[in-house]
Design goal:
Length: 460
């Protein structure tokens, strides 16, 4: 269960910003969950709106970066390579400012606060606290150049793990690699309880979806993946994997053997299942299959999202999606959000955090009603830094107001500003340039005659 996320100095998020999934009001028509040992409840969906280049994708990217740091700082980061962070670069001394990430979540009925601060070279601070009733309890605190401080609630080979700690690796990452029971469970929450979907990992998501389809088919019985493919009304009847022909397989094996002769057994080849996906379409004349590349971008997007969506709903985990509405019809995006919002469908406490431009989700005609504590806005100030604001910070006259209309007319900010005077100046300059070029052609030149003149005037 994701409760809060905080970030400072990542990409355009220069100053500390917070995204909260704590409900402001109770609404029984959405799939809220009680926060352990607290009077609070969580919302199942959080939507981030904002104009292009306002930083809304950076909110999702910051969550993804924190997750990747936990999962890979010990095993994947170059020991001598420092920290591959993305700091706010629109200032002259960007390297002098550290970056901080913090997250609050619930696992096995206990709330945890975890976070760290890094610069380009090393981890400056790292902390982990638990809330099992009463005041927060320190599990460990780490500061650069000092021994790690442990609380009584953390047992196990604490000092052994500390000895393996590098300046640019997180204690949590090292502890998980060493099999620490409690810290390993928290590490697994980052790996399995928090998923991020962006365009960069589409191929992995597609492979995951295909594997789920094949698993459903092998087990028989209910097939929710196939049901959602048909539900989207894309004309898709199913997915199948095209087997490699014998000649292709033998050639692939020969190339792999040659590479291993030169580079050794460490050579690994991952073949994407998506390259061999065939999409089945059923028509009155029979069933036909098309390659995934022949399908529309919307169909590919929907197929790629199904795996992570169903995994989140089945496991009660958090899924963060960048530009959820990209290449999807508004009704389809609405239906996807509705699966997380619905108490009848989302029975295990799954959560969806997404960035979007789809204002129809705020409208009265949407199937899924988003409430004010589920809507966030991103907007950049004059220095290029992104600020995140919740809709609950804006006064609303009554609960029946059209949130979509208010947003589009700028009542909440976070909409693009178009300079009409500048646009008119550009149009006038283009028109003058066109007239000048026509005048240079001269009265003797007939239209269509290219002799002695340049055919196309350079307008730009």
């Amino acid at each position: 269960m994701l409760l809060r996320f905080q970030v400072e100095n990542h990409a355009s998020l220069r100053d500390e910003q917070e995204l909260s999934l704590i409900a402001d009001d109770r609404h029984d028509e959405r799939a809220e969950r009680a926060v352990p040992r607290s009077r609070h409840r969580t919302v199942p969906v959080a939507a981030v709106y904002g104009p292009n280049a306002s930083g809304k994708s950076n909110v999702i990217d910051a969550i993804a970066w924190m997750r990747a740091a936990v999962l890979g700082s010990f095993r994947r980061w170059d020991p001598a390579g420092g920290v591959p962070r993305r700091s706010f670069s629109l200032r002259t001394d960007s390297a002098a400012h550290p970056s901080s990430f913090g997250i609050e979540f619930a696992l096995d009925s206990i709330r945890y606060e975890y976070g760290f601060t890094v610069n380009d070279r090393q981890v400056l601070e790292e902390w982990l606290y638990s809330h099992s009733g009463g005041k927060p309890r320190r599990l460990y605190e780490r500061r650069s150049g000092e021994p790690v401080r442990f609380g009584r609630g953390l047992t196990g080979r604490r000092r052994t793990i500390e000895e393996l700690l590098r300046p640019n690796s997180l204690y949590l990452s090292v502890a998980a690699a060493q099999g620490h029971e409690l810290l390993g469970a928290i590490f697994r929450w980052f790996r399995e309880g928090l998923a991020v979907a962006t365009d960069y990992d589409f191929q992995k998501r597609l492979d995951y979806t295909v594997e789920m389809c094949l698993s459903e088919r092998a087990k028989g019985g209910a097939q929710p993946m196939m049901g959602l493919l048909r539900f989207a009304d894309l004309g898709v009847g199913g997915l199948e994997i095209q087997e490699l022909d014998r000649e292709h397989k033998e050639e692939q094996d020969r190339v792999l053997a040659a590479l291993r002769d030169v580079l050794g057994e460490r050579v690994m080849v991952h073949e994407s299942l998506g390259d061999r996906v065939r999409v089945e379409h059923r028509t009155p004349e029979g069933a036909f299959t098309l390659g995934l590349g022949e399908e529309s971008s919307g169909t590919r997007t929907w197929i790629g999202l199904l795996g992570p969506v169903l995994a989140a709903l089945a496991g009660g985990t958090a899924l963060c999606v960048d530009e959820l509405d990209a290449r999807l019809h508004p009704h389809l995006a609405d239906a996807l959000v509705g699966m997380f919002q619905s108490p009848e469908v989302n029975t295990r406490g799954a959560q969806l955090v997404f960035s979007t431009h789809e204002t129809a989700l705020l409208g009265r005609n949407a199937r899924t009603e988003l409430f004010r504590d589920q809507v966030w806005f991103t907007e950049k100030d004059r220095s290029g830094a992104t600020n995140i604001t919740s809709m609950i910070e804006f006064k609303v006259r009554d609960s029946c107001e059209n949130l979509e209309k208010r947003y589009l007319v700028g009542r909440y900010g976070a909409v693009p500003f178009f300079d009409g005077d500048l646009l008119r100046e550009i149009v006038e300059e283009l028109a003058q340039g066109s007239d000048g070029a026509a005048g240079e052609r001269g009265p003797q030149q007939e239209e269509g005659d290219s002799s002695g003149a340049e055919e196309v005037p350079h307008l730009l």
